[in-house]
Amino acid sequence: MSGYSFIGLSLVLLFFSCESVEKKEERYAKQYCASCHVFPEPKLLPKEIWKNHVLPNMAFRMGLTNLMEGAQYVPMPDLVTVAGTLPGRPMVSEEEWKLITHYFEKNAPDSLVIPVNGKLENLDLFEAIKLLDPDRSLPLITLVKADTLNQRIYLGTRTGKLTQFNSRFEIERSFPLSSPPSHISISNNELTVSLMGIMDPNDRTKGELSTYNADGNNQEILIDSLKRPVYFEEADLNADGKKDFIVCAFGNYTGELAVYENNGKSEYNKHVISTLPGSRRTLSRDFNDDGLIDILALFTQGDEQITLFINEGNFRLKQKILLRFPSVYGSTYFDIVDFNKDGRFDILYTNGDNSDYSQILKPYHGVRIFLQESNGTFSESWFYPMHGASKAVAFDFDLDGDLDIASFSFFPDFTKNPDQGFIYFENKEGNFYPLTLPEVTAGRWIVMDVADIDGDNDKDILLGALDFNTKVPKVLFQLWEEEKTAVLILRNRTK
């Protein structure tokens, strides 16, 4: 070893020996807690949540807790699968983990400062019509879809049932499914449905993609052994004239985004695009104008991100992360719209999933717009805090030439603002003004579809309710039990 090398090594050792405990805590926290996802700042959650909920789960994932002790985080049938995702030995020493936990507990606030949205002005653009649950039971809707071509509406339930209505919302037929449906596409009176297998968080391969005729007969399973598929698209990724399937297998600890290549023999070859769990939604189109279909995807579990997968041919896709969010954000949905009319797509994004280890109101939940810059990067241009925001879409609802936004929440503040489970943002010269209507307290909305259901050339809204009794005031839940509103139809009055 040369004299210079010896001096350099000595300086490094001297640096770490003189490093304060506070600096060491911060260094370890940022080193290890950013190894799998964006570093979550301690200020994002209160001390008690970090200490008793989030950090113990992280200890399990980092191999500091044995499998059986960590079973409180995993359904028993999934233990073997989840064990395969855990490190063979702890990722940090016990001493390092103590420093990490102390860093979060020391720097986290006792509570979060929650913005209080005042009472919103009334939304007069829509007439609210309540559609009762077809089974006259507490609504457990998982899918609502308008088929404007055939003038039908489809309603899927957690109990595994699909009901078809006509344009007057009269039941035409219903038929059983093997499990709760999450998404549906309709072509030539044939229904393609993703079935979750088990709706609650799990890692079992019980989901499937199936087709049915309009009567619900002649089921054909196209793809089986899926981990909780929540969304799919049809797209010809290899330009061979046959539609392939892009499937978001959400899973839980495990999951994937995969493309199933149509080989023309009623069989599909699987190509895994990403092994990240929590794939939630995709948009497929030729983003770089090279003649091949690319995939824009949202991942919502752990390493939360919006990523563009650029098609290089033969099912090879190159990853480019456009946006990345802290692991506690609870990303829920995205769409692309050109808000500023510069020819580049912008991103409309919601985050508000509140069902895991930190079930509290969060000031960073809400609806955001990210504008695309000329160099292809994205910058946040608008944010509205909306507790539990689950989905937002942009359309010119009032036909005044600009884009408005409709958004709903599965986790609103039911105690103080139950009417903010749905918010409409009217665009006035580039500024968005929030409005709502009292009828939206009729259910706990989990799905939304937008379509011209009455054929008058303006957009109507369908909200589907899954009325779980979690953090819901007794009087409100009793109302849901009595009324049994499965779908709230917001009929556009513009025309």
Brief rundown of the structure:
The protein has helices spanning 3-18, 21-32, 47-61, 79-83, 94-107, 474-483, and strands spanning 121-122, 126-132, 141-147, 152-157, 161-166, 171-176, 181-187, 190-195, 207-213, 220-226, 229-235, 244-249, 256-262, 268-274, 279-285, 294-299, 304-311, 317-325, 331-337, 346-351, 366-372, 378-385, 389-395, 404-409, 422-428, 431-436, 445-451, 460-465, 485-492. The strands form seven sheets. It has a five-stranded mixed β-sheet, with no helix packed on it.
Task: Give a structural overview.
- Helix 2 (21-32) crosses helix 5 (94-107).
- The protein is globular, with a radius of gyration of 24 Å.
- It contains 6 helices and 29 strands.
- Strands 1-26-25-24-23 form a 5-stranded mixed sheet, with no helix packed on it. It has a 4-stranded antiparallel sheet with strand order 2-29-28-27, with no helix packed on it. It has a 4-stranded antiparallel sheet with strand order 3-4-5-6, with no helix packed on it.
- Residues 1-16 have low confidence and may be disordered.
- The chain is mainly β.
- Strand 27 (445-451) and strand 28 (460-465) form a beta hairpin.
